[in-house]
Amino acid sequence: MIDPGTRLGAYEVLRTLGSGAFALVVLARDRRSEREVAIKLLSKSRGVGKDGFLGGHAQELDILKSVSHPNIVSLLDSFDTPAYHCLVLEYVPGGELFDLISSPTALAEDAARRIFGELVDAVGYLHEKRICHRDLKMENILLTATRSIKLTDFGLARRFDPSIPLVARCGSEEYAAPEVIQAQPYDGRKTDIWALGIILFALLTKHLPFCILPGQRPKTMFHKIARADYRFPASAEGVSEDAKDLVRIILQANPARRATIEEICAHPWLMRGDAE
Q: Which of 1, 87, 90, 175 is the most exposed place for a label (fewest CB within 10 A)?
């Protein structure tokens, strides 16, 4: 942890925003402009990337420098200290999408459509640039004050060649596609799209379609993921059939049958938002 008041280059730490096994994120103030920023600190003592490859920091920095999209968090600066690689990012004050889903307040389907549409647009932009995120989950989607989304945490993101499948098993298991769970070579675009389906299900129901229940072994969840065996909860009886259909065409166990970004964008449920 880093104490408030600590200076990192031109920045003064205000408080910790979050921490994980490989990185720490702090809220800081740029002493030159008084702007609040988020700084992701990656320990130099852990030179191995999150998926076991060297150079995780360099790849994340390279990807962040190459993207510019209203629904992707912006890189503002980067520098090193003796202990850390530091990525200075725009501060997004509205918290994580996870917090919104976890709140007792119901999320209207129109609001879910708007959030999901922005996320699809951001992921489609990445795929056009031959970048797959590989860690799409509600904790990596931030909300602005107006509830627009900002996709963040590119620590597992990779540039891809469409002709060469990826092999590293990474990301959160509840969001992992069947081919990843089964340790098969995979197309990073297809696994990102599977994760989009998981997030859409959560937006509509406030539940994940796959999770480890108390007393249950992880293997049980993995078997369900491999078969795309999910059910809408009874509490989701008000969810429209169009929305359920979009989940269905995304959460296909066979990646060849899984909806593409183009098919998702053209789906009647998402198109309805464009018409409003």
A: 1
pLDDT at 103: 87
Domain encompassing residue 47: 6-90
Q: Where are the alpha helices (DSSP H) in the chain?
A: 56-66, 97-102, 109-128, 178-181, 188-205, 218-227, 241-250, 261-265, 268-275
Tell me: do 140 and 247 sit in the same domain: yes
Task: Kindly state the DSSP code that residue 130 receives in the 8-state scheme.
Answer: T
In-domain check, residue 73: yes
Q: What would the pLDDT profile of 239-270 be if each residue is shown by its tens digit?
A: 999 999 999 999 999 999 999 999 999 999 99
Helix pair 109-128, 241-250: axis angle to 10 deg: 30
179 shares its domain with 258: yes
pTM, full prediction: 0.94
40 is in an annotated binding site: yes
Residues acting as catalytic residues: 135
